[in-house]
Amino acid sequence: MSGRPLTVSERARVVLLVSIGLTTLLYLVPYGRVVAYPLMLLSTLAHEMGHGISAVLLGGSFEQFQMWPDGSGKAELRVRDSALAQALVAAGGLVGPAVAAAIGFALGRTERGARVALYALAVLLALALLLVVRNIFGVVFVVIGLAGCSFAAWKASGEIAQLLLVFLAVQLALSVFSRGDYLFTESAQTADGLMPSDVGQMAAALWLPYWFWGLVCGGLSVAVLLYGVRAYWGPRSS
């Protein structure tokens, strides 16, 4: 005797739990951390795109983006000559992964929403590739991501598209915490050398200490994530 079909809310919850289970397995099975490596790069991409999109929204420009195999990245921007604008652009990178995760959860609630989100992500990656990605490693990673999102949105079943989007959202959500130490460091080592961290730049622009801005950005990231997860997990309004 067949059971009743799952509701949208029940299906969404199953997808989220499966995504969390798959994530756990990555850190338990042999070579799982090797498989998780591209997911770490994904958080770097979301971080740097957060800087770039924030700069554009605040009247500046996104000049170029570079990423390196160690997981570091760099966004070259033109930002308005305003301390507040400079601080907001720095914050945009810190909360970028959380915002991307929350959007993924919100759209991943349904199979149709997940497919739309993957198409939108493919378009965003294509634009980034054409306009701002400027080193070979970054190009290779973005091309792979573009191909994967395009294929999943076009050819994968609705269930697989939903699972993929929610799985990626889970990774971005976890990166807020796994890389949270960056919120409380005044400088950061990149492939270009030692540079002021994002919270260090915020402190220089707005005077208060870097750890204060780390607390602010961390708290905002958690609040955004909780909103996204609540919208995803809760019952669907009629």
Explain what this protein looks like in three dimensions.
Helices cover 69% and strands 9% of the residues. The protein has 238 residues and is mainly alpha-helical. It has one domain. Helix 3 packs antiparallel against helix 6 (158-178). The two termini are 29 Å apart.
* Main pleated sheet: 2 strands, antiparallel
State the shape: globular
So how many helices? 8
Mean pLDDT: 90
What is the number of independent domains?
1
Derived structural class: mainly alpha
Topology:
Blueprint: H1 8-26, H2 32-57, E1 61-67, E2 73-78, H3 83-107, H4 111-131, H5 136-155, H6 158-178, E3 187-190, E4 193-196, H7 198-206, H8 210-233
Antiparallel strand pairs: 1-2, 3-4
Helix pairs in contact: 1-6, 2-3, 2-6, 3-6, 3-7, 3-8, 4-5, 4-6, 7-8
In short:
This protein has 238 residues and is mainly α. The protein contains 8 helices and 4 strands, in the order ααββααααββαα. The strands form 2 sheets. A two-stranded antiparallel sheet has the order 1-2. A two-stranded antiparallel ribbon has the order 3-4.
Which terms summarize this structure?
single chain; 238 residues; mainly alpha; two-stranded antiparallel ribbon; 69% helix; globular
